[in-house]
Amino acid sequence: MVLNMDSSRTRITKAVIPAAGLGTRFLPATKATPKEMLPVVDKPAIQYVVEEAVSAGLSDVLMITGRNKRPLEDHFDRNHELEEALRKKGDEGRLAKVAESNDLANIHYVRQGDPRGLGHAVLCAAEHVGDQPFAVLLGDDLIDPRDPLLARMVRARADHGGSVIALMEVDPEQVHLYGCAAVETTADSDVVRVTDLVEKPAPADAPSNYAVIGRYVLDPAVFDVLRTTEPGRGNEIQLTDALQRLATDEELQSPVYGVVFKGRRYDTGDRGDYLRAIVRLACEREDLGADLRAWLRKYVAEEMAD
Prior knowledge:
Elements: H1 5-8, E1 14-18, E2 39-40, E3 43-44, H2 45-55, E4 60-65, H3 70-75, H4 80-89, H5 92-100, E5 106-111, H6 118-123, H7 126-129, E6 134-137, E7 141-143, H8 149-160, E8 163-169, E9 179-185, E10 191-199, E11 210-218, H9 221-227, H10 239-248, E12 256-260, E13 265-267, H11 271-283, H12 289-305
Parallel strand pairs: 1-4, 1-6, 4-5, 8-12
Antiparallel strand pairs: 2-3, 6-11, 7-13, 8-11, 9-10, 9-11, 10-12
Helix pairs in contact: 4-5, 9-10
């Protein structure tokens, strides 16, 4: 296999955030509000994701949206009336928070149309991305900013080329909830070469307990593969299926690597984990943590007493 080192060293500036899902697990809250706009403490989940992309050096963000997603655009746009009202009140603190999302990145939007799976959502970004490597960030996974996973993946792409996915060890009984990777080691202790991928396997059929989580740094070769990828699980075009072809077809000369992540991750796509994420993040806030931790200790003590 010949590695195109010029391609691997291309600076990555573009991030794609699929945001066309209906959020059915959070109904009725998401009947009129996009799930990406649900608050995690006092910021919508989608803002954490954009901030993560920006902190990794990605200044160009494309959101793949659908119907009823206009609040996403409004959130990252200026609200002159609100800003002026806060300015007249002298509320500089809240004014700064409101204005924070306005200039985070150069944000673009494209509609997915028919919801045909994550692979199709990524393919919708082809014209915007062109022939450059790019990142994909799923909004259901929040990565703690103290554990810069995406930045590490960008470096791994520069070192190894190809595409890079994020992997996390999970309980073997949970692998059926994820894409699962077969891997072999590399010279980097936290980087593996992916030799196969299976979408949501039964525990007995899983090649490992390395689960694919929602961060990807992709070679543009993935677009050609997605264009010929047939619908798979759920009758949707699966990104995992396209990556499996890249990982196993040596003729494509576009290998797949994985960064094994051991940091803090919050799954906001599950109601229970969403609530736990809010509690964890709020407990660590200087302005909220002390009072909330004290209340939690009292609440748990009272529950145990009963």
